[in-house]
Amino acid sequence: KALNCPELPDKAHAVNCSEVGPQTNCFGFTSFDTTQKVIVMSFRGTQGATQLTEEILDFFTGKKPFFNDAGHIFTYFYDAFFFLWNGGLSQDIRNLKYKYPDYELWVTGHSLGGAIASIAASYVVHTGLFTGDQVKLVTMGQPRTGDYDYAVWHDKTFPYSFRIVHHKDIVPHIPPQYGKDELFHHRTEVWYNNNMTTTDTYHVCAEADGLYCSNRQLDSYPPDHLTYFDINMPDWGTQGCPKM
């Protein structure tokens, strides 16, 4: 029933995250839980063919420096995060941190949202809003987000960081690892080599981005990217309800 469906959070942000071409929106929201004592940042994945095309075309535009000691970030993901951060997300997080200074920060996202979540978690730690051990990062279907230096810095910074991958999801294998940009995943991959129900087994992969776990797959199955834990990710958070 509609009454039981979640409403759009007050602290939601949808911004144009395209510098050129048609408008494409990136979306994220903040929330908090006084029972578990957490602040949350959550980010939506790619929406529609136009945004997907822009991301693919941006594979050829290279990377942007993150911080002097933290490597480089793929251009589209870098820009998308800062459009959201400067579009109101920064003020929300600062207000929540001021109100709940001892709360943990949980950061999550799917697909493009997973890449933005990785950058968001890294940014708030590097700028001193949180420490690495105050942050828990869990992404789903995250594409490669930064270069080798970014991956190394990330691994040294976050004791709790997991990238969940569903079976033959192709997105965690793009952009390509090798080439002029040399993008790499950070740790730790959790691979469900099955239908990914809540009771299915999984592999926790010690390697960050070698020829192990999901990288052993020689083929892909696009529906695996759209479904995680039996949830249709484009409708994430509203299953059985109208889209937000």
UniProtKB/TrEMBL annotation:
Gene Ontology biological-process entries: lipid metabolic process
Matching InterPro entries: AB_hydrolase_fold (IPR029058), Fungal_lipase-type (IPR002921)
Superkingdom to which the source organism belongs: Eukaryota
CDD domains named among the record's database cross-references: Lipase_3
Gene3D superfamilies per the UniProt record, alphabetical: alpha/beta hydrolase
Coiled-coil segments: none
Fungal lipase-type domain location: 40-177
Protein name per the record: Fungal lipase-type domain-containing protein
Organism whose genome encodes this protein: Caenorhabditis remanei
